[in-house]
Request: fold
Amino acid sequence: MTRSAAVPGLICAALALAACDSKTREFFEPIADPGGLSTGDVTGIVTVDGVALPGVRVELGPPADLDAMTDTQGRFSFESLEPGSYPVALADIPPGVACPEIAVSVMVVAGEVATAEFGCAAVGGLQVNVLLNGLALAGAEVSVDGAESRQATTLSSGPLGLADLPVGSYTVSLGSLPSGIACGSYSQQVMVQQAGMTTATFDCTSLGGVAGTVRLDGTPYAAVDVDLDGAIAADTTTDGGGSFSFSDVPAGTYSVSLPALPANVTCTDATIQVQILAGEIASADFDCVSAAPPSFDDLMGDYDVDYVPTLTTCEASIVGFSVVGTARPDSTVSPPGVDFSLPHTPHPIWGYYDSHTGIFVADFMWHEDSPGVEWNEFWDVLVYVNREGRIAFLGSAIVLFRDETTGGELCRREYDLSGIKRP
Reply:
């Protein structure tokens, strides 16, 4: 012991004082942490979308086991901590707030301040209901796009719940659906509110269909056009077995018709009304018969003939397109031909009539229209007995103009051709 250290103690003992002067004792007692150089501090801040979040309890784990509340500035602090590693965690996070990290680890160093920052976001929830005929539909793909994107598939157990979505506007869309289903809408715009539950509901229904057959004279009628009209419109053609079908049709009342039957074909029902129910297939069957083509003798008589222009490539024309023709036999050809005498030309239409099919193909002889130009008219028609029992025909006519010397086509006119026998 040095002299300077021993003297005060001896004086105290010699005077037998009850206690030494406090200042004298402080001089000799060591200070636990002179200048705070053996401990450190932890400070931090909690924010929501960049704004201070007050009133959140923050826990400092062992060995300190302390807690603190964020102030009005969202800040917290722990002081005079022994050096070492400490966990810092958020507790009692308020509803409508989600934090990517709720716990971090900090290293306390003597004489320094460690920091812990928690950046959180305002969030809400989204409930998506996909209903099929009023009940939860399983297997529907749902996508949510906005500040954050998510995908999910619905279950039959109930609504699809999506939690902790950042507040904002979202597009909720239906993707792949089980077959045979239609929905009133497939996309909705929603606004997710903080701490709230936003709902998007899609109402869907099961689709139905219609199927049937078309028979002609008791046998399947192939390649027949079939139309469906109602809430939706569609068309199809019968297959080789005379069958047709329409699928994925919304429930409702529809008409099924055969719009392009040959003139010599008549069906029991030209149009059939069907009621299509959700998830069910309605039926529509057509029974048709074909009228036998007129006999050669029945074809004889006078006809009113009409032309409707469908194409023209030149201004040249012939006169008298509404004409009266007289059919008469020509026994010099085989099969027998039929002449149609036209008032405006000495060259009658003549051709061949097949009484088994009702097909009549005919043409003029080439006729000089003007010097160096000649023309001819070609008919291709179907002769039949119409629903009023009168003989009629439908088909087409082409009038060609050509160079009389070279035979090259100069121009043409095309027409829809029809005629009916006078009573």
Q: What stands out?
A: Residues 1-35, 317-325 have pLDDT under 50 and may be disordered.
